[in-house]
Fold each of these.
Amino acid sequence: MLKVYNTLTRKTEEFQTLEPGVVKMYVCGVTVYNDAHVGHAMSALVFDVVRRYLEFRGYKVKHVMNFTDVDDKIIARANALGEDPFALAQRYIDDYRQNLLDLNILPATSNPRATQTMKEIISMVQGLIEKGYAYPAPNGDVYFRVTKEKEYGKLSGRKLEDMQAGARIEVEEQKEHPMDFALWKGAKPGEPAWDSPWGKGRPGWHIECSAMNLAELGEQIDIHGGGNDLIFPHHENEIAQSESYTGKPFSRYWMHNGMLQLGGEKMSKSLGNIISIKEFLSKRDADVMRMLVLNGTYRAPLLFNDETLDAAQKNVERLKSGLRPAAPSASGLSAEAASALASQAESAKGSFTDAMDDDFNTAGAIAALFEIVKAINTARDSGANDEQLLPAQNMLHTLTGVLGLRLRDKKGSADVDPFVNLLIEVRTEARKQKQWAMSDLIRDRLKELGVTIEDSKDGTTWRWG
RNA sequence: GGCGUCGUGGCCAAGUGGUAAGGCAAGGGUCUGCAAAACCCUCAUCACGGGUUCGAAUCCCGUCGACGCCUCCA
């Protein structure tokens, strides 16, 4: 039975979908005005794993991830660069899509954009006004009336009274209440704007997600995800808008990932301590980033530094070791030993799913995979042949795939394989004649060319890397 | 100040009532001409102080500390 921690109730709950076998999942994407950083990657990876596991469990997942492609920051950056804001947004959308592909993150089933959801946004704002949950202000803005929504604050666990104390007193004479937030912003000269019943303007930040949810998934969804820095105000406001509008509970489960920590601080655009996804991938494999995330708890802060990354890389290497072939002249295991290996893999699969069922405990799941690795390596050391290793290796491959790990070996050109094999053959002959200098030279030179050689009593193997 | 998360071996990190998963690092060993890899062995009583219980890392109270949100933010 799958259990999920729900931010809304602060409890781990049994996972039940609105519609049997189908999961409607909405994950907040990014505002496209700059290169996406590894913190965004963490969030995307977390929900990619959630999705992959749900699919592994047999659910059909409708996975929606939005792009916020019009807002203050995009406009500001575009002005600074002297670029058209829409062109700038498009450029970063393309970049981000590529980042996700490079990270082996499955494309969402739908990627709505604020600018392409304008009709729905406007009619939702209109509806909220009609129901008394919103009001237009003289300056062309439309605000949500937080005092009208009795449950406002339920996600973040705040009370309106508490928030007032700490709230920055804005020079916002237009608002009835300091915590009222903008559903629609009247356009200033030179800004991108759309026609609306309240004059030219553009949507506030939160309303687009409510509108996209409605348009893409309907009035109620199963999972709403994002970083925990979005709990307030973004998700709180989304709930307020959506539930006021439909009169129904919005999302059954709210899932939030923890923040990536760089040097003890959250990595964020405003702090400027950023490593872009592109920059990361120029130095490390995508599997390393994924392993870093998998080795921790998705809800907890994640330490991002050379030590944790090196460890993640080692973990990846270790998983790969399980996929290596048998020694060339392996003698073979007894039938009993071979089937024991297969059943060890089967039982590790049970541990894997038990861990993942427990609120996506990926660290526990990884431990189960290491059990398979150890069993395979032990069997190989005992002389198992490729055929005998295969069932366990297939299992390992399947389960690492559920976590989205590629575990690809570095690839050299296949054309050179015969020549490498020839060199190995020559070296084997040299070793028979105890010509150690020669065999070491071959080994060292091949290493320089990216080929790693390993000798065992059952023969010599090689691989790229 | 308010709300919330958390504090497990040198490092990362599972584990919510019954005597501490896993990985990395370290030390010892097997194998090997050497090396590498792999395998085997060793390595913690769970921030601190109280309490509840037959029994707590796990529940309660307090202290200290870290982090997040309260303003744009994955």
Note: The radius of gyration of chain A is 27 Å.
Amino acid sequence: MAVTLKELGRLAGVHPSTVARVINDDPHQRVSEELRQRILALADEHGYQPNRLARSLRTKRSNVIGALIPDISNPFFALMFRGIEDALAERDYSVILANTDDDSARGERGITMLRERQVDGLILATARRHDRAVQQLIAEHFPVVLLNRHTDPIPPNAVVPADYTGSMTAVEYLIGLGHQRIAHIAGSDEMSTGHTRRQGYRDALERHRIPFDPDLLVGGSFRDQGGYEAMQQLLTLSIPPTAVFAVNDLAAAGAMRAANEAGMVIPHDLSVIGFNDLSTVAQTTPRLTTLHLPVHAMGVKAAERLLAQLLGERGFVEPAILPVTLYVRDSTGPAPAPRE
Amino acid sequence: MAVTLKELGRLAGVHPSTVARVINDDPHQRVSEELRQRILALADEHGYQPNRLARSLRTKRSNVIGALIPDISNPFFALMFRGIEDALAERDYSVILANTDDDSARGERGITMLRERQVDGLILATARRHDRAVQQLIAEHFPVVLLNRHTDPIPPNAVVPADYTGSMTAVEYLIGLGHQRIAHIAGSDEMSTGHTRRQGYRDALERHRIPFDPDLLVGGSFRDQGGYEAMQQLLTLSIPPTAVFAVNDLAAAGAMRAANEAGMVIPHDLSVIGFNDLSTVAQTTPRLTTLHLPVHAMGVKAAERLLAQLLGERGFVEPAILPVTLYVRDSTGPAPAPRE
DNA sequence: ATCTTGAGCGCAATCGTTCGTGCTAAGTGA
DNA sequence: TCACTTAGCACGAACGATTGCGCTCAAGAT
């Protein structure tokens, strides 16, 4: 079925290389217009499709990039990945995706697998703050972009959200509403997102002279169930919080679910604020107040930065920090009057 | 950096082919144990990584499959895709994903691109009921599995949900609750899912002698916004429905949002039922009654069927129809007493 | 009439692997 | 001792494309 250049050459009575030149319309070498048309017609007639593997073997460029994603079934990463694919597809690149479930062994296997497949570069959304494998990659000067999470200290090839100012904004907003007992449902401290948002939370409290209460710092997961359990834990406190800032929308949704089940009314009894603004998740009732992040655009930017590296442009000097903006909706409100 | 077989051969003083045999530990040919160890050590020392492109070129098997997905940022497809990747990864296959946004031109470009990259097979979650490109592929005997949606008539290589019995179950459940004015927020009729669920809806009504009212059949999109607008349209009716069966959870969530905004209380004023049971979507308040579908397992099964084809097993005679089960939660209730 | 020039194409090496075939030496049986 | 097997490896042709180089021949220059 699949015709090759060689066969086309035989059919046209010319050397395969000549066919190659017309297919790729080689700018340097020239082929007579008549022959050119004849070959084009022949290629069309036989439905010639170039074998990209062979081409890549020869040119040493696969036009494929690898993406390491914690879990594509997480809508956050799905949307981000969509951004990656959109940006790559229109430039004739393809993506191979591997899920890691935040398991470093799976991550490393993913990296070797992708390199064996000769990907031109990697986009890693899986980096831990101290990630040997990733640091190794960077040291080798292998083309890499760190997406969403970065290693410490933040390298220039990172594309991440403004975690610190974002969580600072969220907490200060809650303080402005009169809240004093503000909890944080945190993400894993091994990831820059979890770590930095936690840091922003603490610094915001400190700036406003609100003493830090370790009981109000709970969690350690980025998922719905984690938020649910963390909220349950918060509700057992003798003085429960009046507001909670969750590390992301998923955890926020889980927290709202737990609060609802405990008979609390949001935002009357409890204010909840999330992070990311995922459309499928933030449309809870009441609608979630959250920090909006251009998730799709982040994916796009990561892909573009990677492609820029591949085109040999000198590496970026600074990481891309994407702005987050507070979207006030219905899950937050003034602090309830203290009981007497 | 990257060492090749040839270089390893030179270093070990043997022919590259010998190195190849020990790397792939060729079962037929034999290499002396001592040489074998020496080569293995050398490969390890230089961090040899096989070039999979070269291998594929030679063996004519890329161990890559292509997946055509309408939109990976849709949590339904994301979860399904996760199933695909899980099943493939553990068998040393990788996936290249392309989004089509249900645009047939993009679909066809996707197919050619994937074939140029020499994928061993394709999983298509994008098939329309009358899809020339897909039918062409099947006619060519190119290894293909149709996932979620199938062409008409349903081919043996399809892995799809029990759309008909599912929607029949949903509507009969609503009828059992006393509902008579039951609306359907439908999906596109070009897709088997939209078409078949619509058919089940109509047949269920007919079986129970409920006259079909064209005003109650609305929509045509699978997305949240579509459900929202369809519900708004239903609310303008002089006699609005007391129950709505949505083609999927996303549309159901949109419908609930519209109903809420119109001041209706679910399930008291309106019952809503979805399809798919997506964890991130179905956790609305009230929790969505829906038809549960083993979405992840569907992806897994599609991948397994494709691999079975690749291993030359005789094609399946029958399509895989995955069972759906009604999960009754809080968004459905008895029909409100007719006003007097 | 000879030289130059360049258009138009062919040649062959190469990318990194795989694998059928063939060669050599040591071991076996009669 | 002599064919004969077999273990252990080398050889080289693929796979399908790319690309620098070189060849040929007609047209223009001198």
Note: Residues 4-6, 16-17, 20-21, 24, 26, 28-29, 50-59 of chain A lie near DNA strand D (CB under 10 Å from a C1').
